[in-house]
Amino acid sequence: MKHTERLGTEKISKLIIRMSIPAIIAMIVQALYNVVDSIFVASISEKALTALSLAFPIQMVIISIFIGLGIGLNSVISRRLGEGNKDEAVNTAEHGFLLGLILWALIAVAAIFLPRWFFSLFTDDPVIIDYATQYTTIIMIFSFGRIFAQVCMSIMQATGDMVSSMKIGLTGAISNIILDPILIFGVLFIPALGVKGAAIATVTGQTISMVVAFILMFKNEKGLKLNLRKFHFDGRITKNIFKVGFPAMLMQGLASIMLAGVNFILAGFGATPIAVFGAFFKLQSFIFMPVFGLCQGMMPIVGFNFGAKNKKRVIDAVKFGALISFCIMSFGLIIFQAFPATLLSLFSSSAEMTQIGITAFRIISIGFPIAGVCIVLSVSFQALGDAHLSLIISFARQILVLLPVAFALSLALNEVGVWIAFPIAEVSCLILIILFAIRTYRRKIKHLGETENEPLTTESLPAS
């Protein structure tokens, strides 16, 4: 337990920064390769970029499944460690691999019939449909690398090992960035594969990261020592993982519904607004990914100290995380307000795309600082085992507010109305999340023991 003991003793600000920096670095590189994919594909044609924009909601569903499982593992493992129950923490980690295998099999089967039907709902352009179908089918069938890498990263993050998680993420992202131009445009004896090459580069990078993850996971000297030969299935553990993980999956999946819905509304104004929205969503990841990295560092701290009944450290962690997130997102607001044309030029944007994009970037980014606070509070609910609250908030923001408002305003203001709906949705999210935060504090946090003056030690932990 010595490696995880610092989650209950080290100064909160120092601990969050130290644990978050590796995740933030990995997330930024992850965002980089997402954008690089689109930049290279945009040089093929605007139709190719539109195809990737249409494919993104399905990618988000896949990512939501993997991240949801990872959040469930992270939350349960960190709380068990905080309680001193190391044996159950180990068995929970081992459940992650079995559940990951099952989820990948379901995704691979869906790849056979889903993509082409889905894309035909948005366009009748055969070129765009073919591009999107090729890309998505490859991503789905070979997604095993992504899910097993995620399982390993979440296990190590739950024990406070953020550096190994960073190495895994960097390996996959850098591999993808190197392979993208080679497979898209062709080099020497390697033929130009176009959009299909972008997909192959992505899954190859994910597979490489999976191999690195397995090496680091099973040679880990600091965290949990797994022994899959002693694994025993426990329905209660599976239930606990999905109690947090399933709402997180649904919450992430709501983003896919939102993306698909916005694309459907924008389709009424042509392919260019869809390309603009796709470019924006890729670029905004440079701002949102550091916040997600911050949350990865914060989540095991909140979960561990909640399990250890340390009220002050739980509150301090959430407050500090919200402050840092607000600062990151405010910086992003400045960038999107000041340099929208420069950002759009990365995607070889036409004059029409640039004109539409400048307006979109400036309007949507107004809600960035509010979104930063909401993300941290939402992740805190997950760390406390109340992932259903995060799901309710996400559903209200994206389905009950954003899509209806976007549709209504688009009738009067065309695509500009869609952009305006985003900051409106962020404000509604903030109001709801504050109400839930007050409720959660009174129900779960207020009566926790005050132990800040009694540092947690291995001797004070309950016996495993």
Question: Major β-sheet, in short?
Answer: none
- Given as residue ranges, the uncertain stretches (5+ residues, pLDDT < 50) are 451-464
- Overall, the morphology is globular
Helicity, in percent? over 70%
Question: So how many helices?
Answer: 17
Task: Give your account of this protein's structure.
This protein has 464 residues and is mostly helical. The chain has one domain. The protein is built from 17 helices and no strands. The protein has helices spanning 2-5, 12-42, 46-83, 86-110, 114-119, 126-141, 144-158, 162-185, 195-218, 235-266, 271-307, 311-338, 340-345, 351-364, 368-383, 387-413, 415-445. Helix 11 (271-307) packs across helix 15. Mean pLDDT is 84; it is low at 451-464.
Summary tags:
464 residues, mainly alpha, 17 helices, 81% helix, disordered C terminus
Write a concise synopsis of the structure shown.
By secondary structure, this protein is mainly α.
How are the elements arranged and paired?
Blueprint: H1 2-5, H2 12-42, H3 46-83, H4 86-110, H5 114-119, H6 126-141, H7 144-158, H8 162-185, H9 195-218, H10 235-266, H11 271-307, H12 311-338, H13 340-345, H14 351-364, H15 368-383, H16 387-413, H17 415-445
Helix pairs in contact: 2-3, 2-8, 2-11, 3-4, 3-6, 3-7, 3-10, 3-11, 4-7, 6-9, 7-8, 7-9, 8-9, 10-16, 11-12, 11-14, 11-15, 12-15, 14-17, 15-16, 15-17, 16-17
